[in-house]
């Protein structure tokens, strides 16, 4: 069995890339061997099976889930832009969650706030400093 390579950016971790990678891993068949590569090297990115939050391409058919290109990764009906976690969740969330109802709840409670924060949109007010 071929090992699946998932690429995300190097440097600091962000919630959207961490959760996007985990969502891809949960989507894969349970016995899949995988590696996670943290790089911005375009050659390594081009060889990857899945790419999240790097590469400047959003194309689910090619398993590319970046939101940093000039046009971004799109915007939800409520105006919140997608970050990489949301793009991956949009593609695989129902399968990962097990059903559409649960996927929608996770989208609302977890995915949307992480995407909003990654894109500089405030969706909550802190109670404590």
Topology at a glance:
Layout: E1 4-8, H1 15-27, E2 34-38, H2 42-47, E3 50-52, E4 58-59, E5 64-65, H3 84-97, H4 100-118
Parallel strand pairs: 1-2, 1-3, 3-5
Antiparallel strand pairs: 4-5
Helix pairs in contact: 1-3, 3-4
Keywords:
129 residues; 40% helix; alpha/beta; single chain
Describe this structure as you would to a colleague:
With 129 residues, this protein is of the alpha/beta class. 40% of the residues lie in helices and 13% in strands. Strands 2-1-3-5-4 form a 5-stranded mixed β-sheet. The radius of gyration is 15 Å and the shape is globular. It starts with a strand and ends in an 11-residue tail after the last helix. The model has no long low-confidence stretch (mean pLDDT 95).
| Poorly predicted tracts of residues | none
Order of helices and strands: EHEHEEEHH
Sheet-strand content, in percent, reads: 5-15%
Roughly how many Å is the radius of gyration? 15 Å
Kindly report how far apart the N and C termini lie: 50 Å
Largest sheet: 5 strands, mixed
Range of helix content: 40-55%
């Amino acid at each position: 069995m071929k090992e699946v390579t998932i690429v995300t950016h190097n440097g600091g971790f962000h919630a959207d890339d961490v959760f996007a990678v985990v969502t891809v891993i949960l989507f894969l068949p349970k016995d899949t061997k995988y590696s996670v590569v943290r790089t911005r090297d375009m050659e390594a990115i081009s060889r990857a099976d899945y790419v999240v939050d790097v590469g400047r391409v959003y194309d689910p058919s090619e398993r590319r889930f970046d939101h940093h290109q000039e046009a971004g990764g799109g915007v939800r009906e409520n105006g919140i832009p997608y970050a990489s976690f949301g793009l991956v969740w949009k593609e695989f969330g129902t399968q990962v969650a097990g059903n559409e109802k649960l996927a929608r709840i996770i989208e609302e409670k977890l995915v949307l706030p992480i995407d909003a924060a990654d894109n500089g949109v405030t969706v909550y007010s802190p109670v404590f400093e």
